[in-house]
Design a protein that fits this description.
Layout lengths: L2 H16 L3 H20 L9 H13 L4 H20 L26 H12 L5 H14 L3 H5 L12 E5 L5 E5 L2 H21 L21 H15 L8 H14 L4 H8 L4 H4 L1 H17 L11
Antiparallel strand pairs: 1-2
Helix pairs in contact: 1-2, 2-4, 3-4, 5-6, 5-9, 6-8, 6-10, 10-13
Length: 309
């Protein structure tokens, strides 16, 4: 079998053994095909590649200017692939085991202020089309901290009956419960009425969509790219910089604002769906940085002219 066929066999195993999401499989496919292509151009093969070959690939990624996070992710993909080949008896070893990764830059996530989120929601409220849907999207995302892929693929059955909490299926098929705020429940109820009315008018002789945010595209629901574009449009209407408004910043805002309001890290970890508490702990650094800026900009003794008085 060719290397690309082994890659596809590995991806099939991810689906069968881990119930890996489509986005996860696509990311692995991109990373592994990039590695296989690089190896092939140098006359190499995945069945004979050694640690020096993988190290050379990572150096080539560095030379391309790829970030530490991207290089670390690519090495992780390569490791998982060689682990699969080894466990399937296709290779006697895993040449990637002894390689040290490049590590990750611990960047503090950017967030949106409450006033900016309110401006976005108001912009969504006055859009000429799909205003109820757009408000519901923003209210749900800010109220729950869901990943955008989790939000756009929500089944409508999960939100019927005015629930106080909803069940979300996250990475690796793991499920978690997230509470809904009163504004998000109100927006959800309004959108459900409009959604169901639209479905009755559009769908005749066909089963109604099972998604909360249906679409006529191949996925059957609003895509991540579609939501990303919607946010950019709303950012312009709200007078906010487009580059500042992203789905992930809304998720970061959810976590940071909860922490500032007194929520504990374990609860935030559970709601975000983080497997490791260390991932959630970065929000304490965000809060510390914001408090430091407040002191430096508002405390009278921190002002530049205070030393002259």
């Amino acid at each position: 079998m060719s290397a690309s066929r082994w890659v596809e066999a590995f991806l099939d195993s991810l689906t069968a053994e881990r119930d890996a999401a489509l986005n996860t499989r696509l990311a692995y496919r991109r990373d592994l095909h990039a590695f296989v292509d690089w190896l092939t151009r140098r006359g190499g093969d995945v069945m004979t590649a050694q640690d020096a070959d993988i190290d050379g690939y990572l150096q080539a990624c560095d030379d391309q200017g790829l970030s530490k996070a991207t290089r670390a992710r690519r090495l992780s993909s390569v490791r998982q692939f060689f682990r699969f080949l080894n466990e399937e008896g296709l290779r006697p070893d895993n040449p990637s085991l002894r390689l040290a990764g490049p590590g990750r830059d611990r960047k503090l996530p950017g967030i949106l202020e409450l006033s900016e989120i309110e401006s976005l929601i108001e912009a969504a409220r006055i859009t000429p089309q799909d205003s109820l849907r757009n408000v519901c999207l923003l209210e749900l995302l800010y109220a729950t901290g869901m990943r955008v892929s989790e939000l756009v693929s929500l089944p409508v059955a999960a939100v019927r009956g005015d629930p106080r909490v909803i069940l979300v299926k996250g990475k690796g098929g793991k499920e978690r419960l997230v509470p809904l705020s009163p504004p998000s429940r109100e927006a959800l109820a309004a959108w459900l009425v409009e959604r169901d009315r639209t479905q009755e008018c559009q769908v005749r002789g066909s089963p109604p969509s099972r998604f909360l945010f249906p679409s006529r595209g191949a996925a059957g629901h609003l895509t991540r790219q579609g939501f990303f574009g919607l946010l950019k449009t709303l950012a312009v209407q709200a007078g906010l910089p487009q580059e500042k408004v992203t789905p992930h910043r809304l998720r970061h805002a959810f976590a940071t604002h909860l922490l500032a309001g007194g929520a504990d890290l374990r609860s935030i970890q559970a709601m975000l769906g983080h497997a490791d508490l260390a991932t959630t702990e970065i929000y304490t650094h965000v809060l510390d940085e914001r408090l430091r800026e407040l002191v430096l900009t508002h405390h009278p003794l921190a002002r530049p002219d205070s030393a002259e008085q």
